[in-house]
Design a protein that fits this description.
Two copies of one chain form a homodimer.
Chain A (H helix, E strand, L loop, with lengths): L2 H10 L4 H10 L1 E5 L4 E3 L7 E7 L1 E8 L2 E9 L3 E2 L2 H6 L6 E4 L3 E7 H10 L3 H25 L2 H11 L9 H7 L4 H12 L1
Antiparallel strand pairs in A: 1-8, 2-7, 3-6, 3-8, 4-5, 4-7
Helix pairs in contact in A: 2-4, 6-8, 7-8
The structure holds a DNA duplex (30 and 30 nucleotides).
Chain lengths: 190, 190
DNA sequence: CGCCGAGTTGAACTGAATCAAGAAACGTGG
DNA sequence: CCACGTTTCTTGATTCAGTTCAACTCGGCG
């Protein structure tokens, strides 16, 4: 069983085996090498990708600075949801931090899932609300927490990530400089 | 035609008149007086409300401080989406800033819409992605902008709000103190 | 080896918070 | 409709969290 199947089962509860198979077979295995791009800013994000193994980073470039919005490790999706659904150019660039295996589905195939799997709409809704909730929490963290508190919260929930990706990407995603990140980190290690 | 009908038409494009009527009749008119609560933190948010007129503020209380997450004015929805969909206790409190007219639908009735209006799933999806995108933009604003830039961006898109609600609520929602808000405001008015 | 990106550390600086006080606007009860 | 208390908003002085700039270390890789 692939991670993708496990993901769907664990997040969406009981789905008929046949439905599960139908969904999964619409996703195609692809790989992307370290440094390569899954999406470039300004392009339409025409696929939804699930990370089987590896790491992707989604970021925007502002005045020569890269702002990391999201890091997708195995078990996460990577896409510009807004671009994918509304078929508009993306603000984001998605790049592989290491060689990465993906299950990708094109927008075209994605639209078909609903026809094959009636329950899909419900699953999709749950997925979207989950994404919404994650962002809601992040907004809240910026309204009510210090850099240190954001660090701790993220660290508790994503310990593994800290030995997998360059830390300045995490710093950027948490809205602080690498220096601040480093100082907080030192403090927490004592 | 109510604002709710207009909202659905303008945001979701052509919907059959019958479908529109079906959806709208499931929403019940209610009013809520200044200071009253639509939702209290810890309770399950069992309805989705559309603001016909008035103002609602969604906030959480942390260490005696209120953190404003969202202000719903006419033409916006007010709900804890996560609580509403997953039927879990809410972190948020929603309070009326002035006497407010709502169109509200219960979770129970909400579930039925799909049966009556086949196209509903598609509309719902677009709605959710729109909500997602708004939050994504807010996260990005905290990762890449100063308080002043956030102020300006929000002001450009929400001028009307500035003469409708106490400004310290807007300040809180933008992640700054009332004092900082006031100083930036003074600067921009010159 | 030498280079380059990642991470650390220190010192100076600054945007924004905090603290405090006063002015203006508001709404509530008489 | 006025008076009074409360909330909102402003302004100034001070403090502090986090940024910036710069220098240095370390480890991996060509």
């Amino acid at each position: 069983m692939t991670e993708l199947e496990q993901y769907i089962k664990s997040y969406f509860g009981i789905v008929a085996i046949d439905d599960l198979k139908t969904i999964v077979t619409l996703f195609k295995t692809t790989t992307i090498k370290r440094g390569e791009f899954l999406l470039k800013s300004g392009k339409y994000c025409n696929k939804l990708s699930f990370v089987q193994s590896g790491l992707l980073r989604m970021f925007a470039t502002i005045d020569d600075k890269e702002v990391t919005q999201w890091i997708s490790t195995n078990g996460y999706f990577a896409t510009d949801l807004s671009s994918f659904i509304f078929e508009k150019p993306s603000r984001w660039t998605i790049q592989a931090l290491v060689d990465t295996e993906l299950y990708s589905i094109t927008k075209e195939d994605y639209k078909k899932i609903g026809n094959f799997v009636p329950k899909w709409n419900e699953l999709e809704k749950l997925f979207l609300v989950r994404c919404f909730t994650i962002l809601e929490d992040r907004v809240f963290s910026h309204l009510s927490m210090t850099a240190e508190e954001r660090y701790n919260l993220f660290f508790e929930n994503n310990k593994e990530l800290f030995n997998q990706v360059p830390l300045h990407y995490i710093a950027s995603m948490l809205g602080m400089t690498p220096e601040t990140f480093s100082r907080i980190r030192k403090k927490q290690l004592l």
